[in-house]
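User: Second chain of the day. Same drill as before.
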Amino acid sequence: MAAEVTDYCSKHTNGIPSSMQDVWQWTVKSFKDADKMSSPLQGAWMIFLAEDRQAKRILEIGSYSGYSALAWYEGTKRTKADIILLELSAEMIAATRRTLDTYNLNDRVTLIEGPAQESIATLTGTFDIVFVDANKDGYLGYVKAILDQNLLAPNGVIVCDNVFARGMTISTSANPDLDNSVRPYWTECGKALQKFNEYVVNDPRVDVTMLPVFDGVSMIKWKVDASNTTVKSVDRLGEKESANGDCSGGVRADGAMNGGGGNAVNGNLDVDAANGTDADK
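Assistant: Same format as last time:
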């Protein structure tokens, strides 16, 4: 059923440009863990989101092969947004730079190499869109730092991908079809994301909506009070900057399995996706 829904949605969604199709296909052929990449359908949604919000500055934490960076670039052609990418994995840095160079994105896209937490600490100004798609045990620290440093624009949005962790966030029995070779990894991711999800929904500064799309997406914005003023109160929860657990991968923290994409039901790259059609991430 999930594959049928994805196929139906794809047929009734404006497609992605040929450049994104090329990067998507190249990534599928080049990396065994290509299910971490956003699907073509999610790429189309990202273009739509950037265009709709008229974003002028975007931060992406975890760039993988540069496919999503290309989506942000396409979605901000009118606003000429500055796009900053954070990545640690040497392999993914090389892949991202290939995409930036091949499709002439360097005029507006900057790739910062190194641990995301350290890179975030150096950032200034505000971002209209912050896309978090890195090591899952880092989500809490990344989002907390973004809020603490007021890096999110007053009308900006933080988009956190894979908050379901292939279903393991909800229950370790939620996805019986998940491959046993990756089940321990996603189980640890689920534990980390449970802590993150509880943290953000209880942070008095923000509002959050979790959507059952792709592999779970949470959208976070500053809370607005009765006077239409954004609320940026001091975080009263005081959690540590990163949830505990073994779900790492660089920014993708250690360059190992980082959990960027994949199908929320199957936990693997869909057959339809491998054939070039949209697959749930």
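Confidence is low (pLDDT under 50) at residues 234-246, 248-281.

User: Great, on to the next one.
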